[in-house]
Structures are given as structure tokens and as C-alpha cells.
Amino acid sequence: MLSRTELAGMIDHTLLKPEATDADVESLVAEARRLGVLAVCVSPSMLPVMADGLVVAAVTGFPSGKHDSTVKAAEAYLAVQHGAAEIDMVIDVGAARAGDYERVKEDIAAVRHAAPSPTLLKVIIESAALVDDQIVAVCRTAEEAGADFVKTSTGFHPAGGASTHAVELMADTVGGRLGVKASGGIRDTATALAMVEAGATRLGLSGSAAVLDGLS
User: Fold this and answer.
1) From the candidates 12, 72, 88, 107, which is the catalytic residue?
2) What's the CA gap between 30 and 147, in Å, rounded?
3) Per-residue CA distances from 47 to 25, 43, 50, 157, 205 (Å)
4) What does the record give as the active site (predicted)?
5) Which of 66, 90, 103, 181 could pair with 151 as two cysteines, CB 3.0-4.6 Å apart?
6) DSSP state of 72
7) Where are the domains of the chain?
8) What topology is assigned to 4-212 in CATH?
């Protein structure tokens, strides 16, 4: 079993509520430091964030993914200029469901071009809205487009968040060449550990304290 420190080192401590204030983000950062997590993840409008010692991630095209690729690219570019070291972008899930993977690839590639390495690019595929074949195809497409991670969910979709089945399928598809981030509905220690066991290398959590409290 992972230690508390090891699990904390995999967590993106997340605040993406539309009603979040600057004070809420300051509290997020303070809690992240207290918990010893790896990163904080916020909406791009909340940048810059004073978070020395923590990785700062921002979302792009969130939460629907139904933004023009040029808008996603501009949002990612500005987020990096304002201090984000990582970008979590949402694909056009409808394009994936329709089998238009070239469109998905172009979307991801536009953001990758706007936020090149060493910025880490995580691609949110909204796995609960996809069937297995679509999950596999989108993960392959994300790798072809230059992503560093594939990520299960926004946590905002009515179809649900992360599942161990989706994480395992994603991890098998990318074969360690990309990271796998499980996010959405992970609220306790057992679920978090199950996601890691399934192949997750990063966890997106808003309730990080509750998850970490289950470990010594």
C-alpha cells in the first residue's frame, strides 16, 4: 500500500467551482501546502496563483470542451503566461462519440502548439461518456497529438467521473508512455488507492484531506 506521503505526491488539489473566489484559492493553496500534495489545479481566470513549492495547473476548454480550438489554444497560452506549468484540456467529447478522431487530434494539437513542452499537457477525455472502443481511440489520438497525460473526467459531466475500468483501459492503451490522471468522484482513500492500482499515476481531488486522512 502507498504511504500517505507517496499518495500526496500524486495529487492535484483542485478547485474548479464557478463561484470560487480569490480567497478560496488562497485557502486551497494553504491546504495543499499543509497536506504536502504535488499540485493545485484552478480555473485560468484565477491565475496567477502564489503557490511557491507547488505545481500550478489550469484547465482549458472547461468543462464542456465545446470551444473552438483557437479559443482553447489562446486560453492555454495565457494560462502558461500567467504561471501555469500544466494544462488540463477538455476534448470535444461529441467529436469523439461521432468517431471524428482527426478533429479530436487537431484540437489537442492546437493546444499542444500553444503550450509546448516543458508545459505538461493533460487531455480530459470524459471517459464516462464514451464506450470502451472510443476511450482507446481517444487515448491513442491524444498520444499522437503530443499529450503527456490522459485524464478521465472533468467531474462536471452527468454521466459520472472516474472508474477503475476506464483507468485500467486507459493505462493499458498508453502503456506507460503517457501518464494517466483519474479525476471525478474520488472522495475516499479506498477509491483513490483503487484508481492507483488500476494504473492512475496522478489523481485530481477536491477532497484531498479526506482521502489522505485514511493513511498514516
Assistant:
1) 88
2) 30
3) 10, 7, 9, 24, 19
4) 88 (proton donor/acceptor), 151 (schiff-base intermediate with acetaldehyde), 181 (proton donor/acceptor)
5) 181
6) H
7) 4-212
8) TIM Barrel (3.20.20)
d(CA 117, CA 113): 9
Cα–Cα dist 118/85, whole Å: 8
Phi and psi torsions of 121, nearest 5°: -110, 120
**CA–CA separation, 1 vs 7, rounded Å?**
10
- pTM, two decimal places: 0.97
Residue 1: pLDDT band with limits 50, 70, 90: confident
- Over residues 35-64, the pLDDT tens digits come to 999 999 999 999 999 999 999 999 999 999
Q: Is the dihedral of CA 44, 57, 55, 162 positive or negative?
A: positive
CB neighbour list of residue 19: distance below 8 Å, 6 or more residues apart? none
Among residues 72, 105, 122, 151, the one annotated as catalytic is 151
Q: Is 181 a catalytic residue?
A: yes
**Residue 151 among the catalytic residues:** yes
Q: Which among 72, 105, 122, 181 is annotated as catalytic?
A: 181
Distances (CA, A) of 11 to 35, 145, 203, 208, 212: 10, 25, 5, 8, 10
191 within 8 A of 205, measured Cβ to Cβ: no
3-state secondary structure of 26: helix
What CA–CA distances, in Å, run from 41 to 28, 59, 98, 141?
Answer: 9, 7, 30, 24
Average pLDDT for 160-170 = 98
Classify 49 in phi/psi space as left (phi over 0), alpha (psi -120 to 50) or beta.
Answer: beta
